[in-house]
Amino acid sequence: MSNKKITILYSRLSRDDELQGPSNSILNQQQLLEEYAERNGLVPYVHICDDGWSGTRWDRPGWQELIAKVEADEVLCIAVKDGTRWGRDYLRVGLYREMFREKGVRLIAINDGLDSANGDDDFTPFREIMAEYYARDTSRKIKSILTAKGKAGKPLANTPPYGYVKDPDDKNKWLVDPEAATVVKRIFEMTIDGMGPRVIATKLHDEQVERPSYYLAQKRIGCYKNAYDIEHPYSWSCSTIIQILARMEYAGHTVNFKLEKVSFKSKKSTPRPKEDWVIFKDTHEPIVSQEMWELVQKLRETKRRSDSLGEANPLTGLLYCADCGGKMFNHRQKHNRKGKTPKNNYVCSTHKRTSVKYNTKCTPHIIRTSLVQEIILEILRDTSGYVRENETEFVQRVREKSAVKQGQTARAYAKQIAKNERRIADLDQIYKNLYEDKALRKIDEDRFVQMSTEYEREQAELKEQTAALQRELDEFNVNSVCADKFVGLVRQFTNFEELTPAMLNSFVDKIIVHEAEWSDGRNPETGRGLGKRIQKVGVFLKYIGAFDVPDMRTPEEIEAERIKQERIDRERAYKREYGRRKRKIAA
Predict the structure, then answer these.
(1) What is the mean pLDDT of the chain?
(2) Fold entry, domain 6-143
(3) Across 203-217, 247-261, 475-489, least confident range
(4) Residue among 317, 318, 319, 320 nearest 303 (CA)
(5) Which of 29, 66, 108, 543 has its CB 3.0 to 4.6 Å from that of 482, i.e. a possible disulfide?
(6) Which of 508, 517, 542, 506 has the alpha carbon at shortest distance from 367?
(7) How far lies 289's CA from each of 32, 155, 195, 540, in Å?
(8) Phi and psi dihedrals of 383, rounded to 5?
(9) Which residues of the chain does CATH 3.40.50.1390 include?
(10) Sequence ranges of the chain with CATH classification 3.90.1750.20
(11) pTM for the full model?
């Protein structure tokens, strides 16, 4: 085996170089280098190239191979077309040049007339600085072009998100990829069904659904076509599920400027604040509806921790305390030592954590989970039944209720806006008079600054409040109510026999739980409730809020229901009294 060192003929081509003509092509570079090597006896030689790589990047595969051979002491000479082929970062190029010098590697840049065998060239550092300046200037121009493109509403992503493909006739337009879009929509639906990202990822893996990177690589799309894990085509991850659920693009919108680069030398992108994003609505066909996307975002905001049963309660995030407004905490037990039914209750979070975090106390508002589920299911049955049998009447009732509510709110807003505007005008006059008093030296400078600062702050707050009220007032439209949306929601569900997570998340907006009261008060000695326990629960549905279904029962049905309820109340009262006597005897 020969230990003779080799000559490396290195060529590199970036996208910017391609625009300057065919002379920079990899083929032409290699032909020029071969002719030079043959003419000057630089044999044996090997070609190493980086096609489509910028000179500001140093993770180029060909360059990494070249460095590995140099470190292994296998290289005698490195020849390039010109110095810019090494790279466009004069500091890094200088470091590598010193490294090659220490290894005894001869450097040749043909078009620059550079050959380290002939000694140092005083112009080399200047050429490298100009090469970097060229890269910086090119980066600035490209950034300017992309900024204009992004502000015009054209997508900036080189590759559409999983679920879309580029229109062959218009690269700035996205078309739905039916196969991938089905998976995306199913991920959203499974989230509404109460599944978390880990459960969804596991389910897709078990069903052998190809993960996005593998799917796109098989179609030769995007950055995964040359590097992907071919041995694990179904290994979905939680992060992939979370990224899909967070993308507004699936609702049909274009979102630009989500990422930025710190420097043209770095290819690493950092996320920008959401307030800096530029969003264009309804630019392409949506895969999921706006309502579904917003519902999923709301579900993702609420943390659902698995308990001792290994699952999260689907009601979590929907129940709120009527008095303090805090969320209700779920408390469950895996088993009960006394052999009774395990506890599964909701309790006010403020009351639960008062001794730890809060100064404001609140009462427990405790309520059984099963009772809340029964109440919700009964309301959904009654409301959906009424909607199906009396759709026209339902729409009319919701519109009338909405009109009354909006009318009342609009009048209150208009009154407050008028009041604010009068006060703003008064403050202008007060400030003018105050300035005159300062000019006439009726008040000193410190007093003027103190008073003017207070008045300016009050005026700024009033202007901000007025603008917010005016925006909401402008949005009022009596004719645009949500009754039709609720009717469409009812049509999506055919079975209301069991309360499912999908049904719960689709219909229920929030649940307000009041503190329980006792019909006969409480025992002053023991504090135990006496009589019948009464607890009010308010269920607010999507689009229509708290809706009272008209009582469609006949007088006979009402009387039968009353008799049945009285019998239930007597049985409960007997059980409570029996329990009291039993506890008294045991004591």
Answers:
(1) 81
(2) Rossmann fold (3.40.50)
(3) 475-489
(4) 317
(5) 543
(6) 517
(7) 57, 20, 19, 22
(8) -70, -45
(9) 6-143
(10) 153-300
(11) 0.58
